[in-house]
Amino acid sequence: MAQIPNLDNSPLNLTALREQSQKDLLNIVKSIRGKKCLVIDPKLAGTLSLILQTSVLKEYGAELRILSADLLQTECPKVVYLVRSQPNYMKFVANQIKSDEPKGLQREYFLYFVPRRIVACEKILEEEKVHQKLTIGEYPLYLVPLDEDVLSFELDYSLQECLIEGDTSSVWHVAKAIHKLEFAFGVIPNIRAKGVASSKAAELLNNMQLEDPVNMDNMGMPEIDTLILLDREVDMVTPMCSQLTYEGLLDEMLEIHNGTVEVDSSIMGGQQDGKKVKVPLNSSDKLYKEIRDLNLHVVVQVVRQKATSIQQDYAEVKSTNTQSVSELKDFVKRLHSLPEIARHVNLAQHLQSFAAKPSFHARVEIEQIILEVENYETCFEYIEDIIQKQEPIETVLRLLVLFSLTNAGLPKKNFDYLRREILHSYGFEHMSLLYNLEKAGLVKKQESRSNWVGISRALQLIVDLKDPEKPDDISYIFSGYAPLSIRLVQHAVRSGWRSTEELLKLLPGPHLDLKRGVSSISFSSELLTGSVGQQSTDRVGHRSLVLVVFIGGVTSAEIAALRFLSAQEGMGYDFLVATTKVITGNTLLRSIIASSKEGMI
Amino acid sequence: MSSSVSVAAEWDLLSDRFYRRITIYSPLPWSSPATTTASSSGGGSGAGRLDLSTHIVAAAPFGGPIAAVRDDSKIVQLHSEPSRRRLLLFSSSGHPLASSPWTPHLPRLHSLAFSSSLNLLALLSDGSLLRFRLPDLKPIPSSSPVPLLPPTSGGVADAVFWGGGVAILTEDNRVVVTADIEVDDPHPRELADPGVGEDEQVLCMAVVEPQFVMSGSPEVLLAVGDRVVAVDEDGVQVLGEALEIGPVQKMAVSPNGKLLAAFAHDGRLLVIPTDFSRIIFEYECDSALPPDQIAWCGLDSVLLYWPEVLLMVGPNGDPVQYNYDEPIMLIPECDGVRILSNSSMEFLHRVPDCTTSIFGIGSMSPAALLYDARDHYDKQSAKAYDNYQLISSSLPEAIEACIDAAGYEFDVSRQHALLNAATYGIPFCSQFPQGRIQEMCKMLRVLNAVRDPEIGMPLTIQQYKLLTATVLVGRLINANQHLLALRISEYLNLNPEVVIMHWACEKIAASTAIPDIVLLEGLLDKLRLCKGISYAAVAAHADNSGRRKLAAMLVDHESQSSKQIPLLLSIDEQDKALQKSIESGDTDLVYLVLFHIWQKVAVEKNAPLDFFGIINARPLARDLFMTYARHSKHEALKDFFLSTGRLQDAAFLLLKESRELERNPVASKGSLHVPQVRLIDQAYRLFAETKEHLFESKSAEEHAKLLRVQHNLEVSTKQAIFVGSSVSDTIKTCIAMGNERAAAKVKSEFKVPDKRWYWLKACALATVGNWDALEAFSKEKRPPGGYKPFVEACIDAGQKTEAVKYILKLTNSAEKSEAYERLGMHEEAKAAALQADNNGDELFSRLKFTLGQNALIDTLRDRFSSQGTY
């Protein structure tokens, strides 16, 4: 199975999008004749593995290297840097070029910025005096399909940039990427945004349409009916909760990178030789598609059923000789799914070894208590305990952020006490981390009464689970908590923001409801007003498409919730998710922790 | 068919083909003194009179303009003309377009020519080149000539121009070719030495243009003595020795570059392929005197001009002779030759087949009958229908021919007649493509418009197709015919942007006296016509023309921020640029402005403060500056923080620096903490100054203290393992090393709560396996947070028996149950769970659930492990 996902079942022609990216890259490689060394920044290398097989690049005479602080070892007379526009990489590039000079190496250097050239980067190249040695180009990769219904802007630091640094580059990037989508799929007639960054992105998108309009004359109906933009800041609660879906747990425990997890080969039933294997995870794997969004214990049952039924068939085949050829054929066909079943048995087993631990259950339980804003003392003591025990700092912060968010901050005494305990336990170098978290409003002093209970009631975030195996609401995702972000999406598609205005005011950032252009599609305004949704399906002949964009990241669990929604009966729309990055609470906090420690934010 | 006869009567038969001379413009305005004064507006005094015999003249192909300078090598009787020479520019219809004084004291003018993008080129006899822009004859790039020849060459003996370059034969018989004559700094290259002997003479030269040569560089043909040599960069080749042509006096290369017309010393005109492989035909002229001019008329005949006689020679039959009692100039076009004389502009070309089929005498072709039918129809004669019946089967061809023939006509009424004939046929011919006639009408409208004497571009339809509409529009613009260019663009659905843009720039250049506001209104009126036009480009032009205020007003209208902002910067509108860049949301543009201001400010005194003031008022600019400065501009960032009262940020920056010191391996170990502590102390004071950052200031104080304590510990233990670790880790390390006292001291100095102390000590003792000490510790007093730290420390260390000791002391049954569970003691876990008070049931079932699943998965796993795949 391939890491590059099959996109044939996508609600939008993402294949064309990916092919364009392939073509753009190959054109760059082709345009530079002869043997060349292609130096790619480490993160981008991962991204590119979702676009093409790197072996293809070698066919065009490219030798591949990963950009690092080390000097470049290559015989090639031409060096092509393919690097995201980040200042730290410019220093690497400059150092490598400068080191060639004393060696008397005469090389041609090319630098392709991804996705576009940036003054701040070129400035560094000028200061390092290598700018004039470089032929500069751009590789406009703004958006990458992660799967048939998930797109990524590949902006790892969007949240901390927007929330802490005040650097809104990622907002522009998001707007630009959506505008590029509009060139291919038509101007999106309805936009709903909530949050500072999202509202800004919607505004930028509108400006871009004015500056560089998408010509709708020779296009049919816009393929995307509604764009919903949400800031991660609006709902920081959800990513702090432990994910309980199969995919969510895989990401939490093993970390999914570019659609794969890396595990010891022994876990996958291989030799115990300490080697790592990469396991691709995307919808091309039919079984994975079926189980990725289910609760882990349901996954175990599904896998068991599949295995048993094959086993029964096998027994039948062995015991009787009366099968017709077609029956045998059928059986063989089902045998083909064995490797898939084996793969997920192995992974599920591995996850279970984490998830079955009492400590995991205790943690999920405490999260639930925090969400319900009950028993302040218990929660406080739990957090105090894990700080003093020196559990990993992101584990601690995750709960602390959750605790602070639902309580609208901590009383000053508790706040200062816990902060001091953190600094004593993990070191004073985390001072700026605490300051940044406070600045971002994630962990702060209590100044007003919490409105979390109100929000939670109004949006029915806490729901008693009836039958975990046949869920009828997205709250199954977190075993009783319906993610706030997805509840907002539900409202946005059902009736727009108008009905929830009072509630939206309680959440951070402004909200925005825009209708754009083209009168010929005026009916789309009613298309999303609840009951009419069904009709629209009939009228257009296919389901209408909602693009949900998360600025600052989204968790697998939330994507699962959206998939669950669109699979519900009577739902007239499909969801396509675009995110700056697929995150977990840990990855989100870890980058803030690291950047704070280095003093870069 | 009377009307047809009169048409054909003007034709001349050359062998089996008809040729016709069409008078396009006559008389030319310059020929009669009366009109001269009337049209003097373009040229001023002296312009407007042109005598070919006394001027050096150049005419551009594709109906382009005519340039002339009086030839001072000829004796001239000055009529009313001023004695000073002028460079004159006329349209093909003889209207003066411009004139400018010819710079005196220049070397003698050798020749004039137009480049393909219609710049005027003047080659001086010393081999230097002057270039002039149209329509105003402004010298480009400067008024000093560019030398094309090395100084020792002795000057120009002969020269041949083509659209993109010039080949020069020098007086010392070398060939220098300049193929990039349009660029500011052309690169002349000398070709191989043609090997002209001391006593030999180059009789004439011709050039095969680069587009017809395989190598892509031009090939120069020279007639030397009785041979012809082809010279290029790599070598010299003697051509056609076997043909025994003898000395060639005059040569011309055909429009397709394949054939050469050569006039030999014995009066023979020969047509030869350019590779001299054979003689295609030859004609013996009456005179052996070489003609003044030789030119191809299309690909089928060659024109020879001696004073008063123009002879047209074709491959067969007798030549046609035309007589002229005044000097003429042959201007070769792709499909014929224009003949310029003092009084008229004519076009000589082969009559197209479709025209012959209609107007040919006695023609009974379907097209002729259709044309005739229309005539009858207009006269309401029934014969019209008879004609139709005769040709009904070949009607489409007939219509086609009428339409085509209309295209070849200059005479508008004849165009009408032919198109009318076509329209008469169309109703009877449903399958005839509808667009054909409209297309032709469109083309003719354009052609008639530009042929108008006021415009004076006598393009034929073939020339127009070759030139393309876009280039035509470009030429009109350059001739300042913006209105017509705009109309044509609109008519042909071309983007009018180029026209309006050019107009706007010219308008600005020509409106020095008009106030900004008025001019702006005028410009905007027109610019609005074109959606998406770049206001920034117009503004940039205004700025270059010294109208900065106008530029500022124009750039306001630019909708694309990426174009607007650089321009705002170049016209010193920094504040506006910053404002606009922030509005655009494009952080890259904000950076562009920031760097620009920073750089400007860097050269001024007191500048950083101004810069800080500018950005501090704008959050996005401020934050981006901070982000950038964190990477490489620490000092500037610190200055910024301090000067804008962000003391806490400055303090954090100091903390960052202190950590960088710690990481820096160069610093010596012993004294490392001193500078580090100093920085932290500074940070502490800054925090303290702010009053809102009490927690931070206390923490910084503690941090400095910790470093001192750790340093002392390292000195006393002689182990460099403390600096950089946290308070908790320091305590743990002390305990693990068995240094209780030190640990206790740290505890009290940093006021570590008892609860944490128990976690730390239990963990440290378990790590080093000191179980006795652990037990003793547990019995010191009742632990403030219960026995959990002891249980967990033992479980983490894998000590089951030790763990059980402390599990028994746990008070909470749920905790007990979980602890047993972690040790794999399921029975005990179950028992404890049952004891657990109210939520016991739930806990038990949860445990059972996880247990059951584990077992299940194990069995499944075994089953599939043999597969080995995933």
Structural account:
The complex is a heterodimer of chains A (601) and B (870). Helix content of chain A is 49%, strand content 13%. With 601 residues, chain A is of the alpha/beta class. Chain A has a seven-stranded mixed sheet with strand order 6-7-14-13-9-8-12, with helices on both faces. With 870 residues, chain B is an alpha+beta fold. Chain B is built from 33 helices and 30 strands. In chain B, helix 10 (469-478) runs parallel beside helix 12 and helix 16 runs parallel beside helix 18 (587-602). The two termini of chain B are 92 Å apart. The chains are: A alpha/beta (601), B alpha+beta (870). Chains A and B meet through helix 5, helix 7, helix 8, helix 12 and helix 14 of A and helix 18, helix 20, helix 22, helix 24 and helix 25 of B.
List the helices and strands and how they pair.
The complex is a heterodimer of chains A (601) and B (870).
Chain A: H1 14-31, E1 36-40, H2 42-48, H3 54-59, E2 62-66, E3 78-84, H4 87-100, E4 108-114, H5 119-127, E5 134-138, E6 144-147, E7 150-152, H6 158-165, H7 169-185, E8 190-194, H8 196-211, E9 226-231, H9 237-240, H10 246-253, E10 260-264, E11 276-280, H11 286-291, H12 296-319, H13 325-335, H14 338-355, H15 358-371, H16 376-388, H17 393-406, H18 412-426, H19 431-439, H20 452-458, H21 484-495, H22 501-504, E12 511-515, H23 524-527, H24 532-540, E13 544-551, H25 556-567, E14 573-579, H26 585-597
Parallel strand pairs in A: 1-2, 1-3, 3-4, 4-5, 7-14, 8-9, 9-13, 13-14
Antiparallel strand pairs in A: 6-7, 8-12, 10-11
Helix pairs in contact in A: 4-5, 7-8, 10-14, 12-13, 12-14, 16-17, 16-18, 17-26, 19-26
Chain B: H1 2-8, E1 12-14, E2 17-25, H2 33-38, E3 55-59, E4 66-70, E5 86-90, E6 96-101, E7 109-114, E8 120-124, E9 128-133, E10 138-139, E11 146-147, E12 156-162, E13 165-170, E14 175-178, E15 188-190, E16 202-208, E17 219-224, E18 227-231, E19 236-239, E20 248-253, E21 259-264, E22 268-273, E23 281-284, E24 293-297, E25 301-306, E26 309-313, E27 320-323, E28 328-333, E29 336-341, E30 345-350, H3 353-359, H4 366-378, H5 383-391, H6 395-408, H7 412-425, H8 435-451, H9 461-467, H10 469-478, H11 482-491, H12 497-510, H13 516-527, H14 535-544, H15 548-555, H16 561-570, H17 574-584, H18 587-602, H19 607-616, H20 619-632, H21 634-643, H22 647-663, H23 673-690, H24 694-717, H25 727-736, H26 740-749, H27 754-767, H28 771-780, H29 788-797, H30 800-807, H31 813-823, H32 826-835, H33 840-865
Antiparallel strand pairs in B: 1-2, 2-30, 3-4, 4-5, 5-6, 7-8, 8-9, 9-10, 9-11, 12-13, 13-14, 14-15, 16-17, 17-18, 18-19, 20-21, 21-22, 22-23, 24-25, 25-26, 26-27, 28-29, 29-30
Helix pairs in contact in B: 3-4, 3-6, 4-5, 4-6, 4-7, 6-7, 6-8, 7-8, 10-11, 10-12, 11-12, 12-13, 12-14, 13-15, 14-15, 16-17, 16-18, 17-18, 18-19, 18-20, 21-22, 22-23, 23-24, 25-26, 25-27, 27-28, 27-29, 29-30, 29-31, 31-32, 32-33
